[in-house]
Amino acid sequence: MSSEKVIIKEDRPTAVQFSEIQIQHNDQELIDTAKKRLRRASTSGSQAIIAYRTLSITVSENQAKGVTKPKRSQKDLAEDLSNVSYHKLSITELEQQYRTSAIRGLGLDQIASRVKEHGKNAISPPPNNWFKKIYDYFFGGFCPLLWIASIICWISWRPLGDPNPSPLNLTLAIILMAVVFIQAFFNAWQDWSTTRVMDSINNMLPTQCLVVRDGKIITIDAAELVPGDVVHLKMGNKVPADLRLIQVSDDLKFDRSVLTGESDPIPGTIEDTDNNVLETHNVAMMGTHVLNGSGIGVVVSTGDNTLMGRIACLSSNNKSTRTTLQIEIFRFVMIIASLAITVGLVCLITWLAWLRRDYPDFLTPSAALVAIISVLVAFVPEGMPVAVTLCLTIIARRMQKNNIVCKVLTTVETLGSVNVLCSDKTGTLTENKMFVSDASIGRETFTSEACNQICSSGSDAELVPQLTLLQLTAALCNGSHFDSETAHLDIRQRVVFGDATDSAILRFAEGMSPAVATVETMRADTEKVFEIPFNSKNKWMLTIVRPLKDTMARSLSSRSSPVTTKDWVLFCKGAPDIILKRCSKILLPDGYEADLTDKRTEALLNIQAKWAHEGKRVLLLTRRVIKAEDTTDNAAGTSSFATWASNMNTDLVVIGMVAIVDPPRPESAETVEVCRRAGVRFFMVTGDFPTTAAAIARQIGIFTTEYPHTIADLDPAKKMEEIPKYVTKSIDIRQAKDIESQSNSTLDHKMDDSSYKSLLLSGSDMITLNDAQWEQVCQYEEIVFARTSPDQKLRIIKEFQKRENVVAMTGDGVNDAPSLKAADIGIAMGGGSDVAMEAADMILLDKFSSIVAAIENGRLVFDNLKKVIIYLLPAGSWSELWPVIVNIYMGGPQTLSSFQMIVICILNDVFPSMSLMMEKPEAGLLSRPPRNPKKDRLVNFNLLLQAYGFIGLMEMLSSMFMFFYYMSEQGIPPSKVFMSFTNLTTDGYMGYTSQQLNEFINVGQSIYYINLIICQWGNALSSRTRRLSFFQANPFFGYNKNWYIFGAMLVSLAIAFIILYIPGIQNVLLTRPVPVKYWFIPFGWAAMIFTLDEIRKLLIRSFPKGPIAKLAW
């Protein structure tokens, strides 16, 4: 039982021990997972682990060689650490060296000078590699292709263009270089904006710690720590600086995996265990976590002088991996690039094999290269970097407004794919504002108000001693304490340090005064001999005290068991199903102790069941009087004492029970309902008693049946192929206004076999499950996992992931950290432990309902990017490809000039695509099944069919019609244009001069160009929604208002005016004003595109299973 010992140096005073839930890391599977999934938010990463191990070996070698001369350069860090000796000092020597007091801490007059000397306790950000960043800005992504295209255009201008170089080729070369610079600017702006957003997010995260200053325990920001500060640590804390431990509980353990890569818990000690400061156990290192227990340490290093700070300097060149969103975007770019290169090569081969031989004057080498480069550049989605940058910035702002913190912004898209959400109960689904509602003595039950009234007024004198004993048990076997600075406030408003359960019991005990005295007085009248804090393995807390006054001894006595000041009293509180096995007697309302018979045990269990069915958490309070002659002579800090104490934790007397209420958050029920409607199965994973967990689950809608299945309904012999799989069915969305009002039967996502509805499992049940039973478990729609341990929570996550589910896990405690790291996306509550927030990918700083906004934004990112792509492809590639095909394969003029292609991509289409990123979620976004990352891609056949075969085809055909219609009006019918090759620009062709023919072509190209710009208006208005009509989500007013799109359309048109009507640009780029009537016809084409797409959406809504719906993007 060494894990229950408390090590206290005998010449030092003791302090109040902290009581917290303990996490056990004995499961090898959990340890292996922790090794594989090191904290994703860590700035040190694997290089930090390598650096730590390398330093540790070097330090040990140097100490063995006797290296003593300190060196301050960074490259000699190992030699520097070899000379560190604070871990070898006694506590008295440590106090002298750092001019501090282990009892009173630093004086306020010492703080200012130390802050000036040592600075803030913060690690400096790694230096920016500006050269690499600038290189990536100008040569990353598609920039190499644009550079090559620009160089070829330069060569096409000269020397290939000599003796008559075309100024258009020079202009193209300059424009392509400008595109590179524009992209570099947006990449730099994205870096800057992302840094700014993440800085603001980091400022929102709470990083506080408990320190002793001038003899008072106060809370300060970790950044304000200075060397010499005395810091209190408790389970769940992140160590705020390098600390030399001076007081520890024997169960104190640290997780150093962020540095070592090993998840084996490191015990905390007072004495050094190794000459190497990196290996000794009496130093708590900055950035590591407290897994169990509590302790006190003196700050020896802060900021850049800590080990974490020094290693950060050695590990600042980590390469980041692509997120799911980045992979999808890269895949899209590669698809388009492959098409562009393929078409370009085919065109080049055609020119070399056919046109150059049969029509040598038709396309000169210079003109052919420019035509091919135009195709390549036109295919490149130049607007995408801008759109993605804007998207992430918008999402960042929306998430901040909802008090959601994403450590890596692009992980929000993962939430759009989540189909299983496992949530902790306490502090997540409930308010974590617990209070004692009921208490019992024997078979009699009382409300907490009745207990207070009886003890205060003495209305039932015979019952007062028993309630007093219950009050003392609640006060003395308790790991929380009041903040002395709030003593003047009402009990409900006073600040309590400790976990929610102990805090509730502490307020209950304080509220029963003045039966004896205040809790502070009770504790002052007793001496704490020993304590084992509550932990998730034992599920109980033990405290041994000795009364210091006769009055306290009498209060601790019962009619059957008197107590003297020489006796010890052992208190134990915890889960009834665990502690009842250790009890042999029960305190009756009359003050006598009686044997705990089966009938009395059944009565207790009935009370527990009644309270649990009401959603209340039940704790049993017990004690044992240890007479003076039975006490041990072993020192309280020895392992033998801990073993003795554990052996004495039997033959307990039941004092009573208390029922604790933790009200559900007001938004929890609605959150569960919305998640279920969104196709996300919502499960509860808690450590509470099954009946209590089931009651809360019914209150908030996780359970919709009165009698859920249990392990008895899981057939261990059932064959895998006989188990029906959970199927998320598509939603029939007919009208936006009907979506929210549809019945649950319409919106529920049901399984093929309705018998798999609700399931209640306990941790003991999960131990016995085989693979067939786990397969059955994973098909249930509503599940509550109760009485779970940390390794069982991890097992739950893994089982659902094995069946290709995307799992999100929410939690706020230390016990949740392993499962938060193992989940596809871990979500911590802002008021939770530092360990949980460190392990999570996302943090909810406010209400739990914010998770709905997070899921919605995750789906919105993907939806809006699809809309941008649908908008960019028709004019940006498809309608630009066909002019080159007509030119090369049909012997006609290029109906759209190469320069106009580039202008469409980098100017005209950018602003409307940006406006599409401003679109709000469509009605029904949260009524769709979650995205399957392996099947539902950003770019798929349906999207390309919509972009090329529907919108793109109409835009291309209408633009071609406009070009040839204009040529026909000039007396040159299409039959004279096709296969004309060089004739169309030859003097005398169709009675026109060469100059007139070229003028016709320039005007026709300008008409094609303006037709595309205006047709894109219809595309932009259509692409705003995927299923809903424009009129159901109109952009003028209401929820879907988006005036940006109209401004963007006007900006696109204004650019076209500049290109077509500024004389200087006309002469250089060979653009021409468009005749008036050719301005109005394109609006008809745009209206046609818009109308046909509205009809398509109507057919989808009317026939959701029809062929058009199946081909919808």
From TrEMBL:
Source species, domain of life: Eukaryota
Main location: membrane
Gene Ontology cellular component terms for the protein in this record: plasma membrane
Membrane-topology descriptor: Multi-pass membrane protein
Signal peptide: none
InterPro entries, alphabetized: ATPase_P-typ_cation-transptr_C, ATPase_P-typ_cation-transptr_N, ATPase_P-typ_cyto_dom_N, ATPase_P-typ_P_site, ATPase_P-typ_TM_dom_sf, ATPase_P-typ_transduc_dom_A_sf, ATPase_P-type_domA, Cation_transp_ATPase_P-type
Biological processes, Gene Ontology terms: intracellular potassium ion homeostasis; intracellular sodium ion homeostasis; potassium ion import across plasma membrane; proton transmembrane transport; sodium ion export across plasma membrane
Span of domain Cation-transporting P-type ATPase N-terminal: 85-158
Keyword set, alphabetical order: ATP-binding, Cell membrane, Membrane, Nucleotide-binding, Translocase, Transmembrane, Transmembrane helix
GO molecular function: ATP binding; ATP hydrolysis activity; P-type sodium:potassium-exchanging transporter activity
Subcellular location per the Swiss-Prot or TrEMBL entry: Cell membrane
Record-given protein name: Calcium ATPase
Organism of derivation: Rhizopus microsporus
